[in-house]
Write a structure and sequence with these properties.
The protein is mostly beta strands. It is built from 1 helix and 40 strands. About 6% of the residues have low confidence.
Length: 441
């Protein structure tokens, strides 16, 4: 771990842009050309690397009206063994110089003309080259932007066990954030986002932001002075302390990590704003090889199974009437607690013989368009039960035409576990998971 004197990470993810100056009276509509100040390339022939990588972005704007503009890309002579240019969409030129005809609102993401820079054959990890882009506006003004392309990429990983079990409800859960770089080049600066779902942070770091309205559930931290060399591992301490909920069977916490000069990823969202905490400073400390859990590229979530349960109960129904009478009734599913177990069950209703269904629960799946909420297979109705808080009830309303006296059944059916850590509801009293629907006169 090396600590640089300059905050390289935070600066490197900012766009390096040059905007044409118009002296006094300059407005926001001035022509501009923007490009990343640094961008990492895979070594030649290597398709591995970080997932969800932010694509290279080159943007030019000129509000001078319709008409063609010119964009050029140039590789200096000394760097021609490090990177080469590949042309697309009508761009012309060589591996070291390309010219493209573009418009006044150009983006290499959206428009066909592209001068793409890739690592040259024979380039090695750590080699770098500065490529200069020049955008000539309709009025003849030249704007330039430069990107330093680095061969090789930092790949930041964090220890992220899939699950933790046997945690007492309301207890403090504390585990350090352990991060390593498995890429070919140093990670210059480290970004971290901590998140909790159903829990709360028990302390808030002085050097992390806590955005609203997720103030108690999201922390964003940056370490611009940290340089994490290939193969190096650090632990961030003091370890986060999380207060687990008392009335939930499941909760989770996550940690996402990225190299600051590379960005958090194409589809990643890092929360903005928020005040800093009033607790200790979170700091990276060098550590040896870590054996306490699996590393995951970019980090990930850990599911927490708390040492509690959810006692579900289904109600019985007694309908009186003669054959042909209509009766409306509700089937009730109640969670007697002490915990919310998410949505682990379905209600299965088999009406009494001789009855016929008139109305069943419906759900609106589009504006004014309804469909049955429950699946119906051979006169058996299977209805998903939503996540119920302790002492909460979900009702299902049916209307039937009665037949001769008889009995049907209603029961709760456990859903198939969707992961190895899913333990269902741990219902201690399965006897009240079934009930009778009786028809009599």
């Amino acid at each position: 771990m090396r600590m640089s004197g300059t905050a390289l990470g935070a600066a490197s993810v900012l766009l390096a842009s040059l905007t044409a100056c118009a002296g006094t009276g300059e407005t926001a509509s001035s022509p501009s050309l923007t490009a990343p100040s640094v961008y990492y390339l895979r070594p030649p022939g290597d398709r591995t690397g970080p997932h969800d990588k932010m694509p290279y972005s080159l943007v030019a704007e000129d509000t001078g009206g319709p008409g063609a503009r010119t964009l050029t890309a140039d590789v200096p002579t000394a760097a021609r063994g490090t990177v080469v240019i590949r042309t697309y969409g009508g761009c012309e030129g060589s591996a070291s110089h390309a010219t493209c005809e573009v418009d006044g609102d150009y983006s290499n993401w959206a428009d066909a003309p592209r001068a793409k820079v890739v690592a040259a054959e024979g380039a090695r990890a750590g080699d770098s080259a500065v490529v200069t882009y020049t955008y000539t506006t309709k009025g003849g003004k030249k704007l330039t932007a430069r990107t330093r392309f680095v061969v090789g990429e930092p790949v930041v990983e964090a220890v992220a066990p899939e699950s933790v079990r046997g945690v007492r409800p309301g207890a403090r859960l504390s585990e350090p954030v352990v991060v390593r770089n498995t890429g070919e080049v140093p990670a210059r600066g480290l970004g971290l986002e901590l998140s909790v779902d159903g829990s709360e942070f028990d302390q808030r770091y002085a050097n992390c932001r806590y955005p609203e309205p997720q103030k108690g559930h999201i922390a964003v931290c940056e370490f611009p002075d940290l340089t994490l060399d290939p193969g190096e591992t650090v632990a961030l301490r003091p370890a986060p302390r999380i207060r687990t909920p008392r009335a939930q069977l499941y909760t989770s916490y996550g940690r996402n990590v990225w190299a600051l000069d590379m960005g958090p990823g194409h589809y990643a969202t890092v929360h903005e704003g928020g005040e800093h905490g009033d607790g200790p400073v979170l700091e990276p400390e060098p550590t040896g090889p870590h054996t306490g859990g699996a590393f995951v590229a970019g980090g990930g979530a850990t599911n927490v199974v708390l040492d509690t349960y959810a006692d579900y109960e289904v109600s019985a129904v007694h309908l009186k009437g003669a054959p042909g009478d209509r009766r409306t009734f509700t089937l009730e599913v109640r969670n007697n607690g002490p915990a919310n177990a998410s949505a682990p069950v379905r209600l299965v209703f088999q009406p009494p013989p001789g009855t016929s269904m008139v109305k069943q629960p419906m759900t609106e799946y589009d504006d004014g368009v309804w469909e049955p909420y429950c699946d119906n297979d051979d006169f058996t109705y299977t209805c998903d039960v939503k996540a119920l808080d302790p002492e909460e009830t979900q009702t299902f309303a049916f209307t039937m035409t009665l037949g001769e006296p008889g009995e049907g059944t209603v029961r709760l059916e456990d859903k198939k576990p969707f992961s190895p850590w899913d333990v269902g509801r741990r219902d201690p009293d399965p006897a009240d998971d079934t009930a009778v629907v009786r028809v009599s006169r």
